[in-house]
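ARCHIVE RECORD
Type: protein–small molecule complex
Small molecule: adenosine monophosphate
Source of inputs: curated submission
Record status: active
Notes field left blank by submitter.
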Amino acid sequence: MLVVETVPELRQAVSQLRSTRRSIGFVPTMGALHAGHASLIDHSVADHHATVVSIFVNPLQFAPHEDLTKYPRPRTADLKICDDHGAEVVYYPAVHDVYPTGFRTTVHVAELGTRWEGAARPTHFDGVTTVVAKLFGMVGADIAYFGQKDFQQQTLIRQMVRDLNMPTQVKVCPIVRDPDGMALSSRNIYLSNAERASGLALSKSLLAAQQHWNQGDRDPALLMSAMQAILAAEPGLELSYASIADVETLEPLTSPQPVVVAMVAGRVGTTRLIDNAVLGPWQPL
Ligand code: AMP
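STRUCTURE (tokenized, with ligand):
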């Protein structure tokens, strides 16, 4: 496995792969890799002749009061996971390599980023779409792999790819969870045992919505109240939102639909957690 730190090295590594291999998969991450990230690498390795992973804590998607400086950066462990799962190249840049002096261009996807996470983190999604557009341009992969865990993020990225005719396709992979149901997240390491127990209310509320759905309940208000009942009973959780939304527009729903997304977010202690579940058959556009 080759680790590169600059765009010219990355381009050279990718063109070398291209000369001998037919397809390239790409997994963009911020590191602190866990089994969720590893599953994206596994999907890419299964689908492609070569896989490129990026590990970059993107300052553009953090607000000044957020956890940019304390975000975990376990370089050795991360590189081992990439290697163990069969990545060929890891792009591990410094901030100035991605955002050199004089950098001016950002990518903004209108409307989709204003609700939910965007309401709590107004500058977040412009940071995400900008860095993903840059990484797509650097790597030139056939398919890039994203987790359903960040549901709103994958919606924006797929919209950006369509709107800007980017040649890299997007594949969305299932959420990997701990046995107790908690969605894996790099931020889970911040949680004390008590906070983690409170955070479990998120996945429990989604399970309740899923159980109602399985019984044939389709009324968004009913599904939402099933979630609220669990969330309200958890005093350690400061709820940000719990909603039933359209899977493509992310608009909150009031009438029954054949497929919906249940989205939930909240804070335990100082850590913000998000989770979601798609109810019904979903094929990302
Ligand atoms: P991050 O490092 O948090 O930027 O995440 C990098 C990628 O991993 C994103 O596409 C995430 O959606 C995905 N991801 C994060 N957590 C999980 C998880 N528990 N299951 C599947 N994918 C995940």
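CURATOR ANNOTATION: The chain has a mean pLDDT of 97.
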